[in-house]
Design brief:
Length: 77
């Protein structure tokens, strides 16, 4: 073992990084569902009510998170 954190393998994982942002605001929520190549997380209203910052909203967008047609945040994996 080279001493690196086991999280190093997630360095470029958009889904994981986005979930980390979501967890800052909704610590008891995570993945709410999944389909082929997409995961669903929280209702955007949950993040708004929790006080998500504009910077974190932009970061989620940059990480390819989107509002799915059913109103949940989603990310292709």
């Amino acid at each position: 073992m080279d001493g690196d954190s086991h999280l190093e393998k997630y360095h470029d994982d958009n889904a994981f990084l986005g979930l980390q942002i979501i967890r800052k605001y909704c610590p008891k929520k995570g993945i709410a569902g999944a389909e082929h190549e997409v995961i669903y997380s929280v209702d955007p209203e949950d993040l708004i009510e929790a006080g998500i910052t504009e910077d974190d909203v932009i970061e989620l967008r940059n990480l390819n998170w989107m509002i799915h047609e059913e109103g949940m945040l989603a990310c292709f994996v």
